[in-house]
Structure prediction request, 206 residues.
Amino acid sequence: MGAQNQSEFAFGPQADGLPPSRGGGPAHKPCNVYFALRPDERAAEQARRLAGELRRRFGLRERARPKRLLHVSLCHLGEWDEIPPSMLFDGLAAAAAVRMRPFKVTFRRVVSFRQGKPALVLRADEGRQEILSLHAQLALSLMNRGVSVRVQPKLEPHMTLLYDYRSVPETILAEPIAWTAKSFVLINSLTGEGRHVDIEEWPLLG
Prediction:
């Protein structure tokens, strides 16, 4: 299977911190804010090792993402020069209304998708429906507060390992990457700095 289009994967505009395409699209704001799951330390280390192995096997040139940037996007809040206080208030209140129990997330496959510069991603298998449910809860909670959000139930939850112009065919992992999601976070991805700031974190309590 060849590279797939990003529209099947993204949970909102540049939700995964993708670089702009070479086509000269609109510049991105410094603050890119979205909800996400973070892998635990063991899963993040596994993902980093896997990215290194795939770089060597397929001759990829770009570096793997640092462990601190690995995440599974849930719902995009927006992009701004500075985060509006009212939007931050609505985002925090919407997240506090979410109810879900901890669940296991398992990745068994990697694949490339293309938006100017292909991204190599892990595709979720176990936990996919729970991730989509969490996305829908966040989106509905935000809409109930008057925030405009796209609900995209057919999207594929994923975690980006690296960006590279060379594509990688869909590959089944010899050892799945898994962890139990016990919380979710609101992230401010500082565009151009390669840095994430966690604004707030909420436990999954059911």
Notes: Helices lie at 41-58, 85-96, 128-144. The two ends are 37 Å apart (CA to CA).
